[in-house]
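#dry-run=false #mode=assembly
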Amino acid sequence: MQHFSHHSEENYLKTLYKLEDKQTKKVNNIALSKSLELNPATVLEMVRKLNGKKLVEILADKTIHLTEKGKKKALAIIRKHRIWEVFLVEKLNYKWNEVHHLAEQLEHIESDDLVKRLEAFLGFPAVDPHGDPIPDENGKMKKIKTQPLTDAPLKKKLTILALGNSSDEFLKYLDKIGITIGDKIEVAEVEDFDNSVTVLHKKNSLTLSNEAAGNLLVNAV
Amino acid sequence: MQHFSHHSEENYLKTLYKLEDKQTKKVNNIALSKSLELNPATVLEMVRKLNGKKLVEILADKTIHLTEKGKKKALAIIRKHRIWEVFLVEKLNYKWNEVHHLAEQLEHIESDDLVKRLEAFLGFPAVDPHGDPIPDENGKMKKIKTQPLTDAPLKKKLTILALGNSSDEFLKYLDKIGITIGDKIEVAEVEDFDNSVTVLHKKNSLTLSNEAAGNLLVNAV
DNA sequence: GTATTTTATTTGGTCAACCAAATTTTATTT
DNA sequence: AAATAAAATTTGGTTGACCAAATAAAATAC
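#status=ok
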């Protein structure tokens, strides 16, 4: 009666997509295992199953690579995840650092129709609460052109469009200093000593570490 | 990483609750197996596990009975199911016969807080789209006093409060003849021959079979 | 180019949730 | 009370998703 296999499979595909997307390097079994926090033997077994379903390819150098079919499935999960996140924040008043865990559950609800209706109910949002773009029904996702605040020119009006890191800690930090997606910001100065960035934000001067500024993604000008 | 055991457990508890509630007779292993559409061996095994967790009791005559703890859990699932159904109908414009399958998935999302927020978002509905009452956080559920339309007195203004049967077929039939929860109705005549019921509904005269009328639950007067 | 480390793979498990078929127990006829 | 039917239980499986530990292969260091 009950089949929750898709849960697991979907997590593999989603994780693969995210690793490939970062593409700092090729995704191998170890990398995927670490990301999923699963034993390499387990992951190897599953990757072979996914390969049998034509969802992933295993290249000659053992790199694991999503096929078009796999990528489409991964994007469908990401789409669901992000749409649910918008719902949680916009309609149920969750804070942006509280929604990830819930969305991880909700993204596995099986119904394309439900997601479509939810999307319409939310007014077809383009991005999730962290500024990440929401793929459309066909898995098309608009890349939003951004740059880290650390690379942005001085004295220009910028808008915070997304985050380079959506960890709970960073989100809480941003809450604390009152920064959120969509805020206007302007780089006043970059300190030579430690590359910290002093910005003008809501009439206040605010100094951010290089680390923090590097994870604030603003419009490319 | 992944544990979906609760899915299965929750379905057992929910099904047990519903069988006990009907209480046409004692719930034994066979009855539960049939209701869950699972093999009796499987069900026996699981019931013993639930017994170990003090969620069910196994009486001397083999009757399976929810403990208070089990009942509370069952009611929490039913609560989630019904609240999600309201959401689907009220906010996403699903029809009442379309929501059951989706709610069966959504009811397993683990978060009491989410349900509470959803409930508030929906304005604390008292009943689901089929007129079934929604248990509160503590598992308290108001029994709504109703009677089948077949037992109702003639020529009295009645309100349809709930359904005795929420099968897809019955819901579609009601849609077809334009009847929904909350409608006002009045029994004009009961035919001696076949016990069919002729009613006044939205200025129209409508004849319902005894079967159909028996599944329309109206306010007890 | 050998030694060492890292990565991949194999082997032999576990656990939860399911099953069919055989057997035992309990209930119901007659 | 014996025969029969029904329900409960046992037995011996399967499958999916996981693991640890051993081994093999590949990459890197020296």
